[in-house]
Amino acid sequence: MPLVEHLDLPTFSRLREQGHEVLPLDHAVHQDIRELHIGFLNMMPDGALVATERQFIRLVGNCNRIAQFYVYPFSLPGLARSDESREYIERYYCNFEDLKEQGLDALIITGANVANPRLEEEAFWEPLMEVVRWADQNVASILCSCLATHALLKYLHGIEREPLAQKRWGVYSHRISSPGHPLLRGINTRFDVPHSRYNEISRVQLEDAGLTILAESEEGGVHMAVSPDQFRLIYFQGHPEYDINSLLKEFKREALRYLSGELDAPPPLPAHYFHGEAAQLARQLHQQLESAEQADLDLLEKRLESLLDNTWGDTAKAVVNNWLGLVYQVTNLDRTKQFMQGIDPNDPLQMFTCPDK
Question: Is 144 labeled as catalytic in the residue annotation?
Fold first, then answer.
């Protein structure tokens, strides 16, 4: 599915430079191929705003070629933003009111930083729920990432996330829990997913709410689950969209916070992320931080980055490919309509093999 450069969004040029196919709009309009229109609600903080935008749009663009993809980034009021980020959003992002009028086939919602123990106290809570209520009646399927997963499960099922004893971050091995599910077709039975969070929702909480677990880790917890209808809402607790160096950059940010006195102790190394020579270098860096030795973080970052392995990207592409392939088969040709004629909104995957509900 080629991405269509229908907006003056710098991410499209960046992806083209990295070797991804991005179709100019004037070429796209002359192709006789179906379009899919995907909303992308980006709630990430300033430091990760553009990187997360690029990561998810890249995942969409790496799907197969049954349609042209039009991706529409937008954000919410109530999120703390610098002047620079506000200007970027005003210049390049879409307006939700316009998207409501134009219609969308599917929606991706990212995580966000929070300042309150209760999610409903966040300033972005009500604007987010407005989007969710609209999407429930107008969009075929919603894919939620990290904090968005916790927020929607709270809103729709009253599930309270539980704080972890310490931050869970690293790359964890997962296994498929529902091998017959169409979202998991062609997926390895064991695969890695990065995690980075302070809270979690457990298997028991999800199953008590009637959700289906699709993938989980003994060490990392549940990564992927779906709503009782198996498709309308897809929940990620992990970060399959991450770049190969995302956890490294996060570790560097935390190390700099420690060196500046914001943190009382140096951050732990991300679990199962560094291997071989990279693990040795990372341990040396951590020892330097613990002993307050001078460390050249920029130099070590460059050396470590060249030694990293991406063990999750292919699986992430396959899952998103399966998701949008299903969207393609159930959503209406008219993007203002939710499903094609004959599709039951309460059982949209009626023609596919799914685990017992």
Answer: no
CATH architecture of the region 3-243+311-330: 3-Layer(aba) Sandwich (3.40)
| Cβ pair 168, 221 in contact under 8 A | yes
Find the catalytic residue in 63, 94, 144, 146.
Answer: 146
For the stretch 204-228, pLDDT in tens is: 999 999 999 999 999 999 999 999 9
Domain with CATH 3.40.50.880 in the chain: 3-243+311-330
Active site residue 290: no
Range in 100-109, 125-134, 162-171, 284-293 with the lowest mean pLDDT: 284-293
Q: Are the beta carbons of 235 and 149 closer than 8 angstroms?
A: yes
Length of the chain: 357
CA distance 17 to 180: 38
Q: Could you give the CA distance from residue 186 to residue 91 in angstroms, rounded to a whole number?
A: 39
Q: How far apart are CA 155 and CA 158, in angstroms?
A: 6
- Given 239, 250, 254, 354, which residue is catalytic? 239
Pairing of strands 212-217, 162-176: antiparallel
5 is a catalytic site residue: no
Candidate list 216, 241, 250, 254, residue with the active-site label: 241
Distance of CA 75 to the CA centre of its chain: 15
Q: What is the pLDDT of residue 30?
A: 44
